[in-house]
Design brief:
The chain is α+β, with helices and mostly antiparallel strands and 236 residues long. It has four helices and six strands; from the N terminus they run H-H-E-E-E-E-H-E-E-H. Strand 2 and strand 3 form a beta hairpin. Helix 2 packs parallel to helix 4 and helix 3 packs antiparallel against helix 4. The longest helix has 15 residues. The protein is elongated, with a radius of gyration of 18 Å. The N terminus and C terminus are likely disordered. This is DUF3000 domain-containing protein.
Amino acid sequence: MPQQTLLASARRESTAARYPAPATRRGLSLPVISHPATYALTVGSRTVPGDQSPEFTQALSDLRGARLRPEIRLTEVPAPQRIAPYAVALTAEVVGAAADEDELASGRFVLLHDPSVPDPWDGAWRAVTFARAELEPELANDPMLGAVGWSWLTDALESHHLGYTAEAGTVTRVVSESFAGLSDRPASVEMEVRASWTPTTGNVGAHLVAWSDLLCTIAGLPPLPEGVVALPGPRR
């Protein structure tokens, strides 16, 4: 599957699928486990009807076991269709400590599995991701913004000692200015990072954690000190 198709699919569904209506899907699912609000209560998937994959079942377990920062709210959404035989999709929101604080960043993490090893992937697995956050207006003209945004992703993967290959993606800045009746609104700048890569080492839950680090970085959260583990938030 061409890389452009993967990125385009992730972009099309990143907004529409954030609060989807319940969907009926056949395939693998995991038991419901009581988790903090920062983690999905279930991690299901879309698979080839009637087919089971021990490797993908393990991947779902790895995703369910991932421990993210308490500022992240993770939710399962319907996985994309017709891209790979096995798929699971999660959306994430980064929020502040106060209950009424606005969303700081949002994104989408899709894991695809195709045992036939598609040539563009250079492997049987593919992570397709999207992350977006509003930045300070003065960053609109920073010529290094794109390169810095991409380095936040690669640094996150490498900080978790994860191997990956066939990485690709884009970093986009969106500047919005208001006029006439809306001229009192200040200009706003959004950064969007769309990326995909093929995991080669580490379980897929670790790749989800690394991607969540990118999401927290563009949200402006300070990194956790080395050796400090984020405590779970309250259940919702």
